[in-house]
Design goal:
Bound molecules: adenosine-5'-triphosphate, magnesium ion
Largest sheet of chain A: none
Order of helices and strands of chain A: HHHHHHHH
Main location (chains B, E): membrane
Helix content of chain A: over 70%
Membrane topology (chains B, E): Peripheral membrane protein
Number of helices of chain C: 9
Oligomer: heteropentamer
Order of helices and strands of chain C: HEEEHEHEHEEEHEHEHEEHH
Strand content of chain A: under 5%
Organism (chains B, E): Promicromonospora kroppenstedtii
Radius of gyration of chain A: 20 Å
Pfam families (chains B, E): ABC_tran (PF00005)
Domain ABC transporter (chains B, E): 13-268
Chains: A mainly alpha, B alpha/beta, C alpha/beta
CATH superfamily of chain A: MetI-like
Number of helices of chain A: 8
Number of strands of chain A: 0
Chain lengths: 219, 276, 243, 219, 276
């Protein structure tokens, strides 16, 4: 192991993570969650057309490689006249991807809230939309924290594909350093360590969030 | 209470020929029901006989397949019309759907329900549970709603629990909060679905006592219950349901001491004397 | 940002560029042609040639770094104006794209483990296994020689496989080997043979940009004439590799 | 779109999937499941050392990129004298990976079986091991089918990384064909379609399995 | 039944000074208990008083922190020893752990338990549920086990349900299968934890009737129950538990008509007359 290389490359790698990986993951996750809620509601809709749209979306997103999704957004869209810069393209592609995966989580979480909660909302006069936002979603949130944080951890690692569409992040930095030094094993291990650090911090955040949300729920 | 007097007159709710199926399961087969102002109607019957379904039809949680409901001399809500609409092609169906929606909401806005498993909102405090309906739906100013809520909580002995979360309460306390949440809506009709059957026996009393007081104050109530003692003491009328039909109805004294129907007699025997 | 920078009309317009910027795609991980040095700066022979060409044409240059998988797709999609990444001129590519005059002419070397004496010529590859990067045309040469080809990401992995004895050989650019031998410990490997045929690398553009290719040709001629290309060759390989 | 290319490359791609992707995914999934059970039991163990080992394993596997895991097994292990062929390396790496992800699923599924089932096993005289195998796991199986089939679908797509360690599968085939024809977009879209086909078949299988396991469970 | 006679003699189980805490919650505070062969002991008390914990201590589902248990004149299982072991350093702890393990298994193998929520194995048929213990643990040949199981199922009126899955049965049927599963182990002691409290009222009778028959046949039983009628008719002794202590014990006739303790009286009042 070339320790000098490890030391020299630590900051560039970390910087690639902090300036590329993390903002990309955060932005995509935030937008993806909103999308996921919409898709989950489509899937839960009693209207067969809407529900089919939701199902088809999830099926395509989850059934095809993320790499191809990135390709289509960045290199395919210009053919129909839409040309976006790398960062917007990456955020769109990852958001769409998160939307597909998280939709299933959100849907399951909504279904996990006892039917009696909807009924209580109904009896005190609430519209379904209001019941959803004030009663169901706050409870679904607790249930969906663990699976959503899995989705987020996967996303953090998946952002390494963004280098394909010209976004510089942690993994791209690692490739650059590896190409220069030929010590790909060392550099990749170091990158893995930084990913692991990020994920560990995330997991700690998840625990804190779960505790917070547990406050008002029976054990 | 100030509104006690004007509750004791005329039929508040009339139900005629209510039918309801779940798939192939024909659960209600023509249920008639009349609830006068200030009445306490007890619905009894074996598990699966349709008690809950009757109750839920009264507040729109279920939409009957046929029959009509009339509230307080208001317009007749005719579920038959809807069934007819179903044959009437696309626009007929749409009108029917719209009507059903309006009907359901109309029913619901006159009544309030207390559930078997309380269904309190676990992420909100006791107070927030109680004022949710008044402030969010009825647009009562928060101040007013809180004031009323505190008054009601004090009445059921839970003034000091206003900031507790539901899981911090005992089962009996949870049910009492459920009752307060219903009262806070100031409904014309209170619906209870076995409010004590999920409770530990020594907690049953505290809930029944509150219900008894409400009855004495003149609230109109429909109560599904297995507490025959309570029905006997508090109800103005008892309905025995079996197989989706009201088999027998009458004053509690008559039903419990001298049931006209063999089925009623058997049911009472099984519940009151399980070991004989 | 990508592509469209300035509004000032200049040299770019006639060449079909949007503005005065030449957008050049490169891998950035292909030493010594296109890579990042210790300071993180993008450098390399192809990079500097592209910079010189742009300067000669009076254009700004903007590099877009991506993986080989995406490089032609991006060219097709108009994301890049050209590629500077040792793109070898092949008949298949010539059918689809337009090449400039070549700026690198090199031979291929057959590299084996230092203790391997079985393979001394390309003919010996018959039935053997080679590690090749799919991006290079050496891939085809290995196949023609009867070798089984294992695809790897790049040169470093090929060397690792050779040293671990998992493949018998790798064919790559002599320039890549030279650079590696000059900067890293290459005691585990050696050159077993060299091709007679030379391969030529050039800038590549889409057919609509034929004018750009012509302009690049002109620029390369001038850079050839004033010795710039030779100097760059000296800098990276110790010799002129442009012809 | 070059339709001739699409037609010509369909069989090679499909073959790459059937001879590479699918067997690799199946073998890794089977081994990974066994591993997942072991890790889940470690994590559930009351022995703090064992439970720490389980947690650490899951943390490392989930916190680091799969690509690095593949590299370590294939390029790194020879440095400590263990040199495996591409296929065994790939199967080991993917199994270890599945083991980490599925361990959490298995653990959650075991915890989801009501405590009363363990107690019923105890009262009729069963050892914990026997309760686990005869009572808990059959019930946990039903719960874990949906999340495990997600793990499997991810695995199918992740096997594309095996090309990095010289295993020829669907995605490698696509790269070869694309590199030769320079038609990356067309070929990748086609590959995506084949992945989607595989995933759709899998999803159908999942449904069938869920129905079967639902047979004796209340609704 | 052939073994009826030899069940009616001597103390089958003696418990002395049982203590148990969950964290800071000191749930049992020195419970003494004696169960003779053929006795039916009823444990009553408010929710949270520790009834279930007592029962679970008798079959090893909980390990008491202190106290001793003795089965059928066998060796004394001393949980105090274990507590002592905890001070005794590492090897002491290990020995204590091993002893506790053996003790728990010994307790468990003499008894069988019927749960409040049946805890039947949902993925196995009724018959498979019943023969699981005999065939898998007691190594009874399958033929024999099936024969006995069918006999027992017939006795509780469920012969025709042998191939049904638990979820296809009513609550009362599920509990009867639970009883049969316990009987099939041929235990010395049957433990019941509120076997009817999760049932619809009209189904309670069918389960209590089976339990009454078992008592009459001479099975030794400890029953946690809220069915005071049942306790009164069937129990040979009633124990009233409050705050982890046996506050009062005696013959049902005495406890129910003339409780010595004020706490007992209050509890009975609340349960028997919730509305007063
Ligand atoms: N949403 C539903 N979907 C399908 N079937 C239903 C539904 N709700 C009720 N049923 C069925 O309708 C019948 C009557 O149910 P209901 O809940 O009204 O009975 P109940 O008299 O309230 O019984 P219990 O005392 O058990 O509460 C039952 O057979 C039940 O299975
Ligand atoms: N496993 C446990 N962990 C922590 N606390 C427990 C546990 N089991 C019981 N307790 C607590 O011990 C006390 C006694 O519980 P137990 O279940 O024995 O009461 P019970 O008399 O059976 O009540 P119920 O009539 O509600 O069944 C309660 O305060 C309960 O919360
Ligand atoms: Mg009901
Ligand atoms: Mg208990």
């Amino acid at each position: 192991m070339d320790w000098q290389l490890v030391v020299d490359s630590f900051w560039p790698l970390l910087l690639g993570g902090l300036a590329g990986t993390i903002p990309l993951a955060l932005a995509s996750f935030a937008i993806g969650l909103v999308l996921a809620l919409v898709v989950a509601l489509l899937r839960l809709s009693s209207n067969p057309v809407l529900s089919w749209i939701g199902r088809a979306y999830v099926s395509v997103i989850r059934g095809t490689p993320l790499l191809v999704q990135l390709f289509v957004i960045f290199y395919g869209m210009p053919e129909i006249g839409i040309r976006l810069d790398p960062w917007p393209s990456a955020i769109i592609a990852f958001s769409l991807n998160v939307g597909g995966y998280a939709a299933e989580v959100v849907r399951a979480a909504i279904l996990s809230v006892p039917k009696g909660q909807w009924e209580a909302g109904w009896t005190i006069g609430m519209s379904p939309a209001r019941s959803l936002s004030r009663i169901i979603l706050p409870q679904a949130a607790r249930v969906s924290v663990p699976p959503l944080s899995n989705t987020f951890i996967s996303l953090v690692k998946d952002t390494s594909l963004a280098s394909l569409i010209l976004v510089t992040e942690l993994f791209r930095k690692a490739q650059e350093i590896a190409a220069f030094s030929s010590e790909f094993m060392t550099v990749y291990l170091e990158a893995a360590f930084i990913y692991w650090m990020f994920c560990t911090v995330l997991a700690a955040g998840q625990n804190a969030l779960e505790k917070r949300l547990d406050r008002y729920v029976a054990h | 209470m100030s509104h006690t007097e004007d509750r004791r007159q005329g039929a508040l709710l009339t139900a005629r020929g209510i039918h309801k199926s779940f798939g192939a399961n024909h659960v209600l087969r023509g249920v008639d029901l009349e609830v006068g102002r200030g009445d306490v109607v007890a619905l009894i019957g074996a598990s699966g006989s349709g008690k809950t379904t009757v109750l839920r039809s009264l507040n729109g949680l279920e939409t009957p397949d046929a029959g009509e409901l009339r509230f307080d001399g208001g317009p007749v809500v005719d579920f038959g019309a809807q069934a007819a609409g179903q044959d009437g092609g696309r626009s007929g169906r749409r009108t029917a759907a719209r009507t059903a929606k309006t009907n359901r909401a109309a029913l619901r806005d006159r009544s309030a329900m207390v559930f078997q498993h309380h269904n309190l909102f676990p992420h909100r405090t006791v107070l927030e549970n109680v004022i949710e309906g008044p402030t969010q739906v009825q647009r009562v100013p928060r101040e007013t709603a809180v004031g009323r809520a505190e008054e009601l909580l004090a009445r059921v002995g839970l003034a000091d629990k206003r900031d507790a979360y539901p899981h911090e309460l005992s089962g009996g306390q949870q049910q009492r909060v459920g009752i307060v949440r219903a009262l806070a809506l100031q409904p014309d009709l209170l619906l209870f679905d076995e409010p004590t059957s999920a409770l530990d026996p020594e907690l049953v009393g505290e809930v029944l006592t509150v219900m008894k007081e409400l009855a004495e104050e003149g609230w109109t109530m429909v109560v599904v219950t297995h507490e025959l003692q309570f029905a006997r003491q508090v109800a103005s009328e008892v309905l025995f349901l079996d197989g989706g039909v009201v088999v027998e109805r009458g004053a509690p004294a008559q039903i419990f001491t001298d049931p006209a129907e063999e089925r009623t007699r058997q049911f009472l025997q099984r519940v009151l004397h399980p070991l004989d | 940002g990508c592509g469209s920078s300035g509004e000032s009309s200049g040299a770019g317009d006639e060449l079909g560029l949007s503005g005065d910027t030449l957008v050049v795609a490169t891998e950035g991980t292909y030493r010594p042609f296109s890579y990042h040095d210790e300071t993180g700066e993008l450098v390399g022979y192809d990079v500097e040639v592209a910079q010189a060409v742009a300067e000669n044409l009076g254009l700004e240059v903007e590099f877009q770094e991506t993986q080989w998988d995406a490089i032609f797709t991006g060219l097709d999609a108009g994301r890049f104006d050209t590629i500077a990444n040792q793109v070898t001129i092949t008949p298949e590519r010539e059918a689809k794209y337009v090449f400039s005059t070549p700026y690198t002419v090199s031979t291929g070397v057959l590299v084996v483990a230092a203790d391997n004496d079985d393979i001394t010529s390309f003919a010996d590859l018959d039935g053997k296994t080679t590690a090749q990067s799919l991006t290079s045309n050496w891939n085809d040469l290995a196949k023609e020689s009867g070798a089984k080809v294992e695809a790897v990401e790049g040169w470093a992995q090929a060397v690792a496989l050779l040293e671990q004895g998992r493949v018998d050989a790798t064919i790559n650019d002599s320039l890549t080997y030279l650079d590696y031998a000059n900067t890293e410990d290459a005691s585990g490997i050696k050159v077993a043979a060299e091709t007679d045929e030379e391969s030529q690398s050039a800038f590549v553009v889409t057919p609509e940009r034929k004018a750009l290719a012509t302009a690049i040709d002109g620029a390369l001629d001038e850079l050839q004439a004033d010795g710039t290309l030779a100097d760059l060759g000296e800098k990276y390989f110790g010799e002129d590799v442009s012809q």
